[in-house]
Please model this.
Amino acid sequence: MSGPVISLGGSIFSKSDEKYLMEFIGKIRKVEGYALVVGGGPMARDEILRLRKLGAKEYYLDVMGIQATRLNATMVSLALGNLMEIPRSIDEAVRQMKLYEKVVMGGTEPGHTTDAVSLLLAEALDRDTVVNVTNVDHLYDRDPKLKGANKIESISYSSAIAMITSEKRAAGANFPLDILSLNIARRSNIKIKIVSFRNPSNVFRAIGGKEFEGTTVS
Model:
């Protein structure tokens, strides 16, 4: 089995976007094989916020977030008819792929976002592309809420990293990737396609290697 690793952003698990999650599951069910990494979304954010107010250390907030990603991954896996356990490591995921030609997983360890996990899985599976399915339609040269913000169709790894680290951009604001993910992509030359889950047909054009609307990082 070949094809991209898919990073399914946790934002698709919000109640207001449930129809897109259902449509994604319906479409991916028809794909013969898939490697899917699922984010934590609102559940992770809510529980992390509660724990932070209670004084929990950042390490344990990461642990809570990972549990949320695995719960979401379990839901998606069961909805797809899978009976395998959710892998807790990249090595476990690779073994599942060899056995079943499909895998659904969440986070693995504190400090790694599920986007980073998707890039590590792509490395381990020798895949050259990750499709990042998220709540934004492109990268922008500034906060897209600001007047004059421009869509970015393609960007290099180093330029994307520079955007994240720029003093003009708040950390993580409207930027669906992190520095670790970009560094992993750069070292193994893995292309990242960023697409919005609110355009399902476009998402599956990107997954199928066809022309799509979004941003390519390479």
Remarks:
- Strands lie at 5-8, 34-38, 102-105, 129-134, 139-140, 151-152, 154-155, 191-196, 215-217.
- The helical segments are 18-28, 41-53, 58-79, 90-100, 114-125, 157-165, 179-188, 200-207.
- The chain has one domain: 5-217.
- The chain is about 45% helix and 15% strand.
